[in-house]
Amino acid sequence: MQLLKRGLKRFEDGDAPDIIVALVPRDPNRKQFVRFSVATGSHGTAEYHSCVSRTGSYGSPDGIFANPFGQQVTQHFSIGTRRTAVAGAFLQPNETFLVAIVVWRHLDRFSLISAASALPAKRLKNPQRIREALSDASGQFKNGTKYKDVPYLLTIFHDGLDVPDETVIKSALYGNLKFSLRDVPKRAS
Hints:
Blueprint: H1 2-9, E1 19-25, E2 28-39, E3 45-53, E4 58-59, E5 72-77, E6 82-86, H2 87-90, E7 91-92, E8 97-104, H3 127-145, H4 166-174
Parallel strand pairs: 1-3, 4-7
Antiparallel strand pairs: 1-8, 2-3, 2-5, 5-6
Helix pairs in contact: 3-4
């Protein structure tokens, strides 16, 4: 939350980036922080606010990567040091991370009340169980919007070898839909 709050303040500056990425890398040092900006091409300038990665590599959320990879980027560390390096040397599109929150500038203001980490969960192997889990999560979101009208997002993340395939997930999401198809008579030419 502190990373995000720190990043959101940058939108008020004259040299504000186009998007803010609050990031917790895969192996974080939670007592030290780093800030750096990269040109992304399609997303403009992205400014990362992150815990320092013990491996020196930082992941980038889908589609938000340095373009060009060879651009020189200065990393500003919380201990007062700076390091300039080629973006592609430390910002890796395929590097995993624990949490990433991406924020775009918008005219409407909102407040983030809370955030929670997503820990490993029970594997959902059949459509009925997936529907139950989605229903529970949706119910929690709907309950929250009774108190404050905010947008929400529910994601499905599956990783590993024994997860349901795409057909099972689609079956869970769209399985109860019914379509009626009627024959349309052919026109005589």
